[in-house]
Amino acid sequence: MRKQHLARGAFALATLSGAGWAAAATYYVAPTGSDTGAGTQAAPWATFAKAQSAALPGDTVYFRGGAYVFHGGLNQCASMTDTVNVVTLNKSGQSGKTIRYWAYPGEKPVFDFSQMTDNCRVKGFNVTGSWIHLKGLEVTGAPQQPGNLLNNESWGVWNSGSNNTFEAIDTHHHMGPGMFIAKGSNNLVLNVDSHHNYDPYSKSGAGQNADGFGVHIGANQPGNVLRGCRAWANTDDGYDFINAGSVVTVENSWAWRHGYYPGTTTSIPAGNGNGFKVGGFGGAYQANAPQHIARFNVAFNNKASGFYANHHPAASYFYNNTGVNNRPDFNMLGVDASGAAVAQGILRNNLAWQGTLVSNVAGADVANNSWNLANVSVTSADFQGTSLDGWDAPRLPDGSLPQLPHLRLAAGSDLLDKGVNVGLPYSGAAPDLGAFEGSAPVTLFADAGPSMKVVQSGLTLNRTTQQMSGTIAFTNQSTTTYDGVLMLRLDALSDGVALANRSGSQGGAPTLTLSSTRLAPGQTVTFPLVFTNPSRVAIGYTPRLFAGQP
Ligand SMILES: [Ca+2]
Ligand SMILES: [Ca+2]
Ligand SMILES: [Ca+2]
Question: Is Cytoplasm tagged as a keyword (predicted)?
Answer without folding.
Answer: no
